[in-house]
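Notebook B, p. 112. Complex prediction, attempt 2.
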Amino acid sequence: MILNELNEQLDFRKAMHLLRRLTFHPKIEQVNQLVGKTPKEALSIILGNQTQLPEPTSSMKSWLDKLEEDPLSNLPLDIRFEIEAKLKQRCAEFINWWLDIMSEESLPSVEKFTLFLLSIWSIDFTYDTLALIPPPLLYRNNQMMRKNRFSSYKQIAEDVTMDGSMLMFQSVFFSSKEAPNENYMRELMELFTMGIGDLETGKANYTEGDIREGAKALTGWRTVAYLGQEGAPSNRPFETFLDRNRHDLQGKKIFQYGEIAPISEADNNENQVRQKEVKGLIDILFKWRGEQIAKFVSDKIVKYFVYSNPAYSDLDLIKEMAQILMDNNYELRAVYEKLFSSEYFYSDEIIACQIKTPTEYIIGLERFLNQNFDSIGGGYTRNAVNSLEQVLYEPPDVSGWTGYRTWISTTTYPLRIKYAIDLLNKKSNVELIELFLQFNVHTNFNELFDKSLIYILPKQLSQDRVQELKTLLLNGIDENDWLNQLSQNNVKCAEGIRSYIGRIIVSPDFQLC
Amino acid sequence: MERRKFIKNTAVVGAGMLAIPNLIYSQKDIEVIPNEKLLSDFDDNIVIFIELFGGNDGLNTIIPAEDDEYFKLRPSINIPPEEAVKVNDVYFNRGLVKDVYNNGFQRMFEDGRLAVIQGIGYDQPNMSHFRSEDIWQSGINPKTNNSLKLLEGWLGRYFALKLPDFPLNIPEHPISIAIDGTTPLMFKSEKGDMGIALTDPEKFYELGHGLTPKESLISGNSNYANEFNYIHTIAKQSELYSNAVYNAYQVGKDKINATIYSDNSLSQKMKLISSLIAGGLKTKVFFLRLSNFDSHAQQMDAAYGGGHYALLNSLASAVSEFMDDALKLGFSERITGMTISEFGRRTYDNGSRGTDHGAASMQFLFGNDKFVNGGYWNNRPNLKDLDINGNLKYQTDYRVIYTEVLEKRLSAKPEDIEKVFGESLLPLNVLENRVSSVESYLNKVKDDYLLISPNPNYGIGTITFEVFRASKIQLSIYNTNGKLKTKLIDRFMVEGVYTVNFNINESGLYFCSLSSGNKRYVQKILVNR
């Protein structure tokens, strides 16, 4: 057993560790909310039971159900460009909306788990060189991921398979019984559920034949994506439907034993085909490769929440997590609860080893400094995340972001520093003082200083670094007088805070969480 | 929690391909290795890789326009002879020549500065872009375990071998540069990235100021220490290399013949490389990427133009312009360039004016005519002998070309090749050595370094050679695809004339290779059984 429960109350440092990994950096009050709770209790607060989904902005509501013509359908060029510009603008609006939610979120934490699913089940807005996925489909995809953040992975697989943006991105949209498209079926197995080979033995999980057969089961599915789309049902904008004439009725044989029986003409309708073939296909994958899937998903969870080093792997851990998934109908929540309340998760080898993703870093800066990048300019948050090479809904390819150390290069590291300094410079002296007043420590300077360090950096520092930072923060003011000066809004305090944070920003561990 | 080591060290491949980027840091700060030291290790060659990402369609690049089978397989996207450019007896896609500076690849091919190498590939080709690109960049034997993650590139592994104290001691100038957003897998090694990525030297410089961390490196081997030190290294490199790149760029940008370059982005990237070289940057390898070769649909329009044509046009323009600029600036002899692409495309078209993922394909190699044996290498693609998926079979292992570059441009010894690729490979001889080896350990016996008798033979014969000075000797026989057949000798030998027996049980052409230090001699063996 690796995942023994940690039976102690969380102190400020442990609560910070948990929240660093499960949110995009916590606000002070969120840490305080968890201090003194056991990990189990803390997790019920962090995971929560929220079923309500965030509201779109009123501007988004104006286009969320609005179909546009297919820009690639032989329209005059100026009209095509006009539609494309509209779609791009809407996509940006949608991403801004999501980033805002991340930035303002309180507990329970929703968005970190939503992004986890998207980081596996990639969707690409500009899905080949010319075509664009209509943003209302991206929005629906996003809400579906959010709704499913703790669901059974089986349910997730079924919902994503029927998701309009995925149908388009992975060419199921063009797949018919005459020409079944193998794109999605390959990725469903290779990238989304089980991987090419078993994590433990390396034994191939499927054959090219399985891909071909599975692809047949998914023929005929379309989504209402465009205005005036041929064969699309009316009044169902952005819904998935079956073009029954393009569906392959023959039986399909997946893996050695998994059979999908031939389907009759009478059953060739949306409900029956979804039940027998889509759900049927997913059932077969989980029935015959359930263990492989559970291991694959466990590995993804470890990489995303624990340590993203691709070479980091502990088969015992993976197997234990996989067993929890299998025992709980593949429900993610079950394995999250167990993993994040374990001694292992709080052990020294896990603390502070994770390189912040661009989203974690940029949103984290906003949450830590209580200052939005959009205060520098419109869409600045999104641009910052993009230029650090994590363009949401536009991963480099269907396998998603490579992550880990690829996030930090001689290109992106200097940009990371620049963004942090830009945001810090945006803070007025008074605002910096307010930031420190939040710590709510009125007894002595050292207590406040220690707390602020734990809040900003993920790991205890060596004594000489502590001393250097303390001197910067004090900025010539006496330790015993500092809190008093802070409460009087002394400019020297603000300057001290500024150089203290500025100094931390250029430390390597500011990139870790 | 002491009980587990969390790091998996799967011993599936040799050459330490899964080794983890973990180092025990014992010194407090990073030191710089001066350029002079590196030059004496590597001399002044520069290698440029252009990745044609998405899978270049080799059959519509160099066209088998006299092969009826080609027209049968590709009813909708064939290019007839009259629509191609015939140079000697090779049909080039017009995009490689038309409207290209100096007649592009036609001129370079005629001058002997361009080699077309057919039939490059590997066993059991993988149809996934990701896996296949990773295979090309990592240089592994693709028959390895499917779940094996490819974390290192062949070039990264080689430089890691040559820079044993990296990243505690880093080269004064970046050892390799990707003109791109991120460093490619090819540069990655167990010790970290053997190179940097940048697109704009001025911006790179502006942002690089003051980034060198004031903190010391953290000792020990914890995950935290490893990541902290990794970031430390990148931060330090950011400042050091931003200065080096900027200084070179400022000197070089006014020296180059800027008007030669066209506007396309690949040409502009080559122009940047030229400025950096002209400005004195001692980088050994540059990497560029040209994307969108994944032409499942609309690869060619009815007028033989279209997406693929435009991409080839960019490629030929960028290369021709750069090589002419390099000639004028006097560094063309130092340059060797090659294209790589994760796979070719299916031999038959897919009905939507496109082609699906294929396997073996052709690559270009270019440079100065003194040191590149331009022309057509290997056999024409055999369209009647396809694999079960309808793909071309390969003739030469893709790593043979890398071996060529490593041995002849980056000072690799034959024994390094084994460490980098996990197996021994024989170069093709498309490249000529620029600098002759300083020390000689072998002597000629009669007229040659290698005496094979009889030749041709029935599979049994002797190989005679003379060791002139005691040294480590390798004697091996290779197949025509560049892969090792048998290793006869791999040990230290004292002076003397040696005769070794060989026994080959299959008819065919073989290559016998004798090497010592970084000298390698090759002789053909023809077996008729």
